[in-house]
Structure formats: C-alpha cells, structure tokens
Amino acid sequence: MRMPAPHRTVAVVAAVTGVAALGVAAGPAAADTSEPLRYVALGDSYSAGSGVLPLDPGAPLLCARTSKNYPHLLAASLGAKLTDVTCGGAQTQHFTTAQYPGVAPQFDALKSDTQVVTLTIGGNDNNTFISSILACGSAGVLSGGKGSPCKDRYGDTFKDEVETKTYPSIKASLNQIKARSPKARIAILGYPWITPAKSVPGCFLKMPLAEGDVPYLRDLQGHLNGAARRAASETGATYVDMAAASDAHDACRPADQRWIEPVLFGTNFVPVHPNSAGEAGMAEQTASALNLT
User: Fold this and answer.
1) Is position 169 annotated as part of the catalytic site?
2) For the segment 54-110, what is each residue's pLDDT rounded down to a tens digit?
3) Number of structural domains, the chain?
4) Of these residues, 72, 94, 249, 273, which one is catalytic?
5) Residue 69 counted as domain residue
6) Is 45 a catalytic residue?
7) CATH of residue 192
8) Which of 87, 64, 59, 83 is nearest to 72 (CA)?
C-alpha cells in the first residue's frame, strides 16, 4: 500500500499544528485551548478511507475504516480528541438509523459540546456512485471504449436523483448536525475527482469507460459536489472544495500521481476510492477551509 508522499504529509502537519495559537477560539468551536479539541468524524467510505491499510482496530469490520483516513490525520496533527464513526457504504439515512447490526446511528456520536464535525456523504444515496460507475463501465466494455453509450442511455437520470433526493437529504443532515452540536464548526467535503475532464491515454485500461462517458461521469460528480456545496451554504456549514486540489490526481493517472484508485490495476482493496495520498490531500484541504492554519 503506497503511503502519502512525504511532502504531502509535511504540508498537512504544517497546515494544522498552529491551531492553538491561530484562533480556534475565533469560531463557533471556541473553548479552553488547554483541552483537546472535541472532533467528531461522520460519513461514508471516502471519510472512512475504505481500502487503505491498516484498518482501524476500533472500527466495525464491515465499515472498512482505516487509521490513515483524513479524520485521523487531522486529529493527530491537532492533538484533538477524535470520535470517528465513519463507515464505508453509509448513506444519509445511517446518520439516524443503524447501518449494520451493532453499529449505532452516526449522529449518536454528536454532543452539545462537540467543536468540529467533518463528513462526506451523498455518493451512496440512491446508489449514485455505484450505479453510475457500474452502468457506465459495463457500457464502456461493450462499446470497446467508443462513443458515449452510458450518457446516451441514462441522460440526466442520475443528476435528477441527486437534485430531487440527495440534495434535500444532505441539507437536512447538516441542519440536524447543527441542532445537535450548535457550537461545532461543520465541514462537508466534496468528493475528489474520480475521472479526468476527458479521457487520457491508458484510461480505458484502468477505468473501462467509453471516451464520451468519461466527461459524463465527471459532470455527474460535479453535480453531486454542487449539491453538497449548496447545502453547506444554506445551512451555515463550510464546504471543502476538492476540485482544484484533486485535479490531475484522478483514477486514470499513474500510481505516483493519483489520489483515487481505479477499477483495474489499483493498489487499494476497495477500488474507486481514495488512497493514502488522497486522504492526506483531503486532510490538508479541510484544515485550510476551516482556517486551522
């Protein structure tokens, strides 16, 4: 398993270690800085770091949570007290209902004195990621990588589901977090780019998508991230924009450049998910967006 590039790890540490001196007290998370920052991490597999080793020994096995995910990186650099309830496959409904037997609803971790909350969510609602990638991958193989068979068949179907179902659920979830933890600074991350803006040489071997469906999936992901951005704006949460930072780090790039592992020939045991470098990049962007720099 490839570890984060040294310069990336240094950047994360440098971005967050000055938090005590530079003003956590300036935001809603104000508290006695002699005490550890109370930090709750919520969300799905992109927050859990599913596919990256080693696994978090304190996490349910089905959640496939790693101890190298961005919440752990942030917490270690901040000296924060982390409660990590992220879980692979989580949907917005699993904030208030159990995802698996014995796995409590994620919102149970929120307290009135919680100071920082982070999350990624929405990609699993309506199976947006899974359905679109499987559908477009199958269509790409059958077309030999030519044309845009997935776009031609599904059109705006996936985007419409994001707009009518996922966006309202994300917004409602952020409002509930605010109600449960009114002192917390809440950050919802956008998903790092999975595909490039257009097909690049060798992309089909890693991500078996037709040439015209590569930008189609990118546009769908942009729409999902836009829903999270809009929900954050309307609820007073912080949106962590991963678009610029993750550009040219998509799943079609060489192993030493990508943040997302591809369907084929990847290194993670869960494909189409962030690797350790991607989780480090998410940690860095979150620290910057929350002004923990």
Assistant:
1) no
2) 999 999 999 999 999 999 999 999 999 999 999 999 999 999 999 999 999 999 999
3) 1
4) 273
5) yes
6) yes
7) 3.40.50.1110
8) 83
